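Worked example 4.2. Below are the chains of a multi-component assembly; read each line carefully before continuing.
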Amino acid sequence: MIDNTVVELSRWQFAATALYHFLFVPLTLGLSFLLAAMETVYVTTGRDIYRRMAQFWGKLFLINFALGVATGLTMEFQFGTNWSFYSSFVGDTFGAPLAIEGLMAFFMESTFVGLMVFGWERMSKAQHLIVTYLVALGSNLSAVWILVANGFMQDPQGARFNPLTMRMELTNFSDLIFNADAQSKFVHTSIAGYVTAAMFVGGISAFYMLKNRHMEIARRSFRMAALFGVLATAGVITLGDALGFIGGQAQPTKLAAMEALWKTEPAPVAFNVVAAPSQSERANLWQIQVPAGLSLLVTHSLDGTVPGADDLEKQAAERIRNGIPAVVALKRLAQDPSDAQAMAQFTAHEKDLGYGFLVQRYAPDQDASKSTPDAILQAARGTIPQVAPIFWSFRIMVGLGLLMLGYFILAVIYTLRNQVEHQRGFLRLALWSIPVPFIACEMGWLVAEIGRQPWTVYQVLPTWMSASTHSVAYMVFSLTGFVVLYSIFIAIEMYLMVRAVRAGPDADGPDAAGPQGEVAAVRAAPAPAGRLASRWEG
Amino acid sequence: METYLLLKVAWWVLLGVLLMGLAVMVGMDMGVGTMLRYVGRTDTERRVALNIVGPHWDGNQVWFILGGGAIFAAWPLIYATAFSGFYVVMLLLLWTMIVRPLGFEYRSKLASAQWRGAWDWAFFVSGFVPMLVFGAAVGNILQGVPFHFDWNLTSRYTGSFVALLNPFAILCGLLSVAMSIYMGATMVMNRGEGVIRERARRLALWSGIGALLLFTVGGFWVSRMQGYHLVRGPDPATAQTPLRQIVERSTGDWLVNFRGHAILWLVPASAYAGLLPGLVAARRGASHLAWWLGALAWIGIIGTVGTAMFPFMMPSSSEPSHSLTVWNSSSSEYTLAWMTGFTAVFMPLILWYTSWAFWVMRGKVSAQRIESDEHAY
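Applying the procedure described above to all two chains together yields the following structure tokens:
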């Protein structure tokens, strides 16, 4: 028997640790490219100020990077520790991109980040520049593979359930990687990281301009961030639209929740700008609409329509009824794999196996074969995820995205006219807007992952079945531990980040005594050749 | 179908290689963390020790992450069963491990002695505990772990957390801690100078002797403990689950492979072939050689466990017939084939650029350089 409380606590723990991890990842993705861009200017023009810029932002990069790496460890292991049924059920397919991420991307990023930090005096300028690019490339390639894995959860492509091994087995590798959801989400997510980095660099540069400190570095950093940011924001919005289009077709239940669409309406469908969705009433208590808006946004035409929750529930009920015999046959096959009749029954109902799993939660004794009409109804209703949080997360994300686009357009205009440092109000806005992209990223995660419920793998494996069979006590223990530990970490990180920002680009290392010291002058000489000889003796 | 058999064995070997990489590389960094407060008495000395592994800890740690990812991809049932079964110890490992990246990046950012002192303790905990857990997990797996599967392969662990801390598991944990200190100490000797090098040398000797003793005692223990043997099961070359085999346990089963193929005694012998001359080398100050001999010893130690248990990977003590083996817990042939391709391309690349990174950062780490280098930890 599956304990709902354990499943709920496991979900809270996963969401908390993933959202927390995702506070640090976007900045790493974007800032690594900004660092590479700054260093490129340094190497090509030879102007030392760009080296100082790269090193200063590199320092902030590392404070953020450390927590990203640390909390990423949790993610790599949490599937096994807390989602063991999920892991054995989809590991054959889902594990591969995670392992390849380690092989291809994370090893590269992590090995070269050490050289990026420590190697300034030990490599030629060109070598160091390549190293910096490899860090950026590595972190972005990491994102590719993680989102390939996530794409499989959103729209499972390239795998088939094998009743004899009781798991989803990979059947087509290129379908797995070239999954449209994964591809568009990778671009959308990584560019969201570039926006985050641009807001971060722009905001901190604005802080210096307000204080009239480090003006040379601040002006240049701001300009680079503004140009990078305006392109990135435009890209995020474009790809977000594409993702909505692709996701809407692959996951109609998520789309219905995002738009609070309870009933299928004839085309053209109106767009709910704001609404008060009520899950129990299965309707919006009130709403403000733009006529024909949704058809235009989602189908890019006036005569397209979008299925509402009512129709989707009906379809789900049908699939649940069809899926129950699949579960029954599967159980018989587990007893006797050579049972031809069971195999025939399974094959006939195979495509709705996930829906058969879904009803177990509501069936007496959690046995699908005992499903009552009421259990089927409840399971069908459960295929519509929680509308209000998805509807609002989506609107906050999009709203913040549009605001950031406006912000970056202004930023580009001001910086190209060389007047940004006189726009005090705008600079203050830039500083206080630093949290905005972080919030938008978190909202994006919520839309994607709450929107996929009640599934871990859409239409294949219910979340409710996926969790490990822990006790409630274990889950309370681990969740508490994570909350305590992660709270301490973020306090330390924020403190060090703010401190490093206040100290500014010219503070020379942790033991800096003199302010404004020329950094390069005190740097130690590179390694003498004689060291090679001493390697074998130690 | 014979290809599938080969792929299963190849991924069993590769898992071993990853565990060896993890033990050698992450173990070394964790050893430095464990001994940090001893090897460095002053703040500068401790910073020297940290900066010896400083440029490499992050790359090295990926061995650990890749180990997790590869078990997930190639051995999903083992990933699911072991990680959830060992829940509380896995959390201990995770919570102590995630402190380490922060220690490197944050410790020397503030000058306060209290701040740095706290991080030095954090380094001790985040070096000692994960290595202890790593060894203890292997120790438990050798003895068998109480778990079984439902009809749909939901794994259920029926033991307690305390049962994982049994004497044999602790012994294996201490062996892994001793080896990590040995590897860390020889690396610190390699790139440290003066008093730090001398302290590291003493540590290398003591930890090496400790590892030698623990491995020997552990070996005798294993030869007398209950092992497992496969009585009957489906054809190893076919896709299968752990629900259709018969497994029995009896004393001395973990020696069967060695008795059947005498050449396999070379595997445990290489642990001695690494440690004994390693101790001599460390004593003479040939730290580079001592480090490589330590790596050989790790290969011998992990190889011994694998060889003794083959084809078992995670036996079940409560339901022996549900034991996980090389034959019944791997991924599908198709997945293993793709994974093999990626590994064949990227593993040599990883080894190449890791070596290059060590070569770029070669040479002694001195106190003067730490104090004048703004990038140092």
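Take a moment to check your reading of the output against the notes. Residues 2-39 of chain B form the longest helix (38 residues). Residues 2-357 of chain B form one domain.
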